[in-house]
Amino acid sequence: MAVVAGSGFANQQATAAAGGPFLAHQALYELSLVKSRGSNAINGARGRILYNFSGNACEGYTSEFRQVSELDSGEGKLTLSDLRSSSWEDGAGKSYRFKIDTRMNDSESAPVDGIAERTGDHITVKLKQPVAKTFELDGSIVFPTEQIQHIIAAARGGKSVLELTIYDGSDNGEKVYNTLSVIGQPISGDRAPALPDPSTTSDVMKSLMRWPVTVSYYDRDAHAKNGEQTPVYAMSFELYENGVSRALVLDYNDFVISGAMGKFDVKDSKPCR
Asked: What digits encode the pLDDT tens for the residues 83-97?
């Protein structure tokens, strides 16, 4: 699951698009079940997401993500998953390195390890794991940090809908997603949230604008039925203009999980020279 990622365009374009540099920070989100539906309904869910983000448009952006979740399917059936990912994305969106490790209960999947490099009108992906493989993608595809940058630019421009095709190295390293982002009306920094958290009470964040955003992820290679396609999953969150996300809601179709921010720490960062 790709949760809170950040982005990179061209150095000057990146800063202008977001209205300022991204904030280096660490955030902890507490996961809990909101509702369950469908044939694969679950009785309970809990877990945590720990997210670290640092870097700038000159040196590139580094992110580390870990999600540990426990799902209760009833009758004593528990599923424990542990997802860890680390990535580095060039500030100009030219290169993206990634490594993803997934463990489900006591079984460990083969890690995904690779690099994607943009050259001209195409992107070349070189996977080391799970199998050594090289393939090309269309150059219009964006990387995770670049995705967030585009969303912020669209929000600041007053747009309510944004379509992007994303590559983040997830699944077996070959998955590409079509995404649809729906952006709500801006929320000014002086407007108190219904449920405050460490980001809304932080002196660094209090004056910043944020937007409610919902991003739906569709399998690009899946065929739509009856002209419509169900998203693989969807994420809703409030996105600050410096790239920080709060009030997460993760919709996996059969169940919905909320991610309330429990801790938020601003990290030291170097300015882009």
From this structure: 999 999 999 999 999
